[in-house]
Amino acid sequence: MSSQVQEYVESPDLPEQIGGTPAFSRPEGWTCSTPWKRAQQEIDTGGPINDAERMVRLSDGEGVHRCTWALKGRTLLAECDCRGYQFHGGWCAHVASLWWQWINGEIVVNHLDTGREYPTPPAWLELDAPAQKHVFEDLTPAETDAYLSVELTDAGVREWARHTDRSPGTVGNQLRSAKDTLYGGVER
């Protein structure tokens, strides 16, 4: 097994989308949908390909499907190469299975900006919202991490510093720098 870290490169197998990979959204009535029922009943024997993609193989399904499943900014990027995903407007049993596994702590999801792994959905995650383009691109990974984890949740600077083995001053400085970059020095 190689010890090299694979970087995310968007799969050429997935259809071209204007604006990139879409953000995860759940259709109206999703909890009663066939994909959601399959996600809860079938076993996924697939696994991660790289930081942003997973192979999904459902026990009663026909073959293996490649899915993008990663965090970027405050959104979850989700896409599947199956026909059901295209037909149902971004909802299929494979995407539903990944959501089911994640909310139950069975898989980890990587944040492409910070490199942090999330075993369950973070408090700052925006669901059913369009992907935010370029909001965090001017921030360093550490600034993005501090902003998402402190500013957008109820975690304090000291608590997050302890969690990440950094000093409170470092986290506070990263948070201040992120706010200055995002808001142009104007406190919000």
TrEMBL record:
GO molecular-function terms, A-Z: zinc ion binding
Membrane spanning residue stretches: none
Domain of life: Archaea
Entry keywords, A to Z: Metal-binding, Zinc, Zinc-finger
Region of interest called Disordered, as start-end residue ranges on this chain: 1-28, 161-188
InterPro entries the record matches: Znf_SWIM
Signal sequence interval, chain numbering: none
PROSITE patterns tied to this protein: ZF_SWIM (PS50966)
Domain SWIM-type: 65-103
Entry annotated with the keyword Nucleotidyltransferase: no
Pfam family, one: SWIM
Name assigned to this protein: SWIM zinc finger family protein
